[in-house]
Design a protein that fits this description.
By secondary structure, the chain is of the alpha/beta class. It has a single domain, classed as Rossmann fold. 37% of the residues lie in helices and 16% in strands. It contains nine helices and eight strands. Strands 1-2-4-3-5-6-7-8 form an eight-stranded mixed sheet, sandwiched between helices. Helix 7 links the parallel strand 7 and strand 8. Helix 2 crosses helix 3. It is globular and about 50 Å long. The N terminus is likely disordered. InterPro entries: AB_hydrolase_fold, TEII, TesA-like, Thioesterase. One of its GO terms (biological process) is lipid biosynthetic process. GO terms for molecular function: hydrolase activity.
């Protein structure tokens, strides 16, 4: 695992491409880590410089306090990304990561830095609301949710000691996203919403509602699959992202 320039604990580059014409910044889902995007980095290494966020409380940051508020998390991430805007930047956020990416984009645009595009994957729009309380369940209830979503490594779910180690960060993330207050705000970059047609966490209609959160263009793409459709449809998702990166460079 390679840490970004200056030993930045927030950013991970698995396949550094300092001369690439564009950057892709990836925001993990609840309970996720930067390493979730290792395959994305490998697949796009020839197209862009891929950077993945590493939130506190997991992997090599496991001794740091968890952040259980989306606004606070976005406040801390935004300044770390400013140096990346020396070329076109595309954001990709999955599930909770889509909301974090949106909130970071809001903060950056107030300082004159706007992503070329925001991919909002597997998440309903910021203005939509559901009553969810997974973060209030006991450990068994939280584990049941992880198994139902099929986004957690089976080795982790089968290792009791490791599982108990990561549950606090997962619970904190769920608290952050489940207590996020709906907003009507917009960003000045185009948004592409990606969704699985059988996602229990977001309907196609709820993903379509991202349209109201951009002053630029909007596109919705629906894939076969559930909440982690992007794992089973990886090649298709990568193709979509690659095309978007090339378009971002072409108009820069």
């Amino acid at each position: 695992m390679t840490v970004a320039d200056g030993g930045n604990l927030w950013l991970r580059r698995f396949h550094p491409a300092p001369d690439a014409p564009a950057r892709l910044v990836c925001f993990p889902h609840a309970g996720g880590s930067a390493s979730f995007y290792f395959p994305v980095s490998a697949a796009l290494a020839d197209d862009c410089d891929v950077t993945a966020l590493q939130y506190p409380g997991r992997q090599d940051r496991r001794t740091e306090p968890n952040v259980d508020d989306i606004g606070v998390l976005a406040d801390r991430i935004a300044p770390e990304l400013v140096p990346l805007f020396d070329r076109p930047v595309v954001f990709f956020g999955h599930s909770m990561g889509a909301i974090v990416a949106f909130e970071v984009a809001r903060r950056l645009q107030s300082g004159g830095r706007t992503p070329a595009l925001l991919f909002a994957s597997g998440r309903r729009a910021p203005s939509t609301r559901r009553v969810e309380n997974v973060h209030q369940r006991d450990d068994d209830g939280l584990v049941a949710e992880l198994k139902a979503m099929s986004g957690t490594d089976a080795q982790v779910l089968g290792d009791e000691e490791l599982l108990r180690m990561v549950l606090p960060a997962i619970r904190s993330d769920y608290r952050a996203i489940e207590t996020y207050a709906p907003v009507e705000a917009t960003v000045d970059c185009p948004i592409t919403a990606l969704i699985g047609d059988a996602d229990p966490k977001a309907t196609v209609e709820e993903a379509e509602a991202w349209r109201a959160h951009t002053t630029a263009g909007f596109h919705l793409q629906v894939f076969d699959g559930g909440h982690f459709y992007l794992s089973s449809r990886a090649a298709e998702v990568i193709a979509v992202v690659r095309e978007a990166l090339r378009d971002a460079v072409a108009v820069a």
